[in-house]
Amino acid sequence: MIVVWILAFLAGVALIVWGAEAFAEHLGAASVRLGVSAFALALLLAGAEPEELATVVVASLRGSPGIAFGDVIGANVAICLVALGVGAVIAPLPFRTSVMRYAILGLPLGAIAAWIAWDGVVTRLEGAILVGLYIVYVGTIWIVQRRPPALGEVHELEEAENAASNPGGRRRISRELLLVLAGVAAMAAGASLLVEAMQQITHVESTQTSLGLTLVGFATAFELVVLAWSAARRGASEAVVAGVVGSFAYNVTMTLGAGALARPLAIVDAASLHFPWLAMLAALLLVVVLAAPKASLSRVAGVVLLGAYPLFVLAVLLA
């Protein structure tokens, strides 16, 4: 029976990844065709990591706070250590002013999220505060850069606008909207299947938390691992690297906040998350320290980051 639920977990991950890709790829073109304002469109896409958001909200609604907390923390650790590590090993990743700004601003946001959740509880009011912090974060970067933040998959917006303005590449609005809705449905179904599989594999909250920190966190961050790998192979676009780094802030604000708004999060053993919270902040700080001297992440830095991830997983499992 356990094999069936492992297969269900993998099927859930596949649905989430496909759904997130379909959502991000077609939302831009559909919105441009429908005449949605650039402001509204950017708020929809900026930092959009719908796979993590869907998983955390479903886990919260299904009464699995360990999975919800674990996914937020575990995905962020995987983003910092695995996604950026893989990209840097292939080719040095640019970490100039805009990218470094995203990374540095993520540190206080991560610290605030850890402080709020330190007692193992995130209320709806605290969830609303976290969502508000995300809006402030997006607004601050927008004002400073005078353009929408290149977080998460917002780089899809430019491609969508180019496609929409090209007569040869025009597609029907109905098809775009159907694909967007299909992506949302796939993410919802995949997240439900993933959470159900975790609940069936183990009913113990501490084990669910460990699996959330490692297996679920890595699975939902996998798309960003592929994104960083692809960016490095194509010459490491600074906007894409900024998007990967900026996803850290999205997860500790919008993703965690949305989960708490759906249903207040409360874990019995709050102390079990103290080390992971600190490890998450340390992972981003390590990225900043390694990238600062030469405004890039070198191959050596990539090896260091990748080497740190198994240590994190081992520490979580041993705890």
TrEMBL record:
Q: Which residues form the Sodium/calcium exchanger membrane region domain?
A: 6-141, 177-317
Q: Which Gene3D superfamilies match?
A: NCX, central ion-binding region (1.20.1420.30)
Some GO term, biological process aspect, for this entry: which one? intracellular calcium ion homeostasis
The record's subcellular location field reads:
Membrane
A cellular component annotation (GO) from this entry: plasma membrane
MF terms (GO), sorted A to Z: calcium channel activity; calcium, potassium:sodium antiporter activity
Question: Keywords in UniProt for this one?
Answer: Membrane, Transmembrane, Transmembrane helix
Q: Which InterPro entries does its entry note?
A: K/Na/Ca-exchanger, NaCa_Exmemb, NCX_ion-bd_dom_sf
TM spans (from-to): 73-95, 102-121, 127-144, 177-198, 210-232, 239-262, 274-293, 300-318
What domain of life does the UniProt record list for this protein's source? Bacteria
Q: How does it sit in the membrane?
A: Multi-pass membrane protein
Put simply, this protein is called Ca2+/Na+ antiporter
In the record, what lineage is assigned to the organism producing the protein? Bacteria, Pseudomonadati, Pseudomonadota, Alphaproteobacteria, Hyphomicrobiales
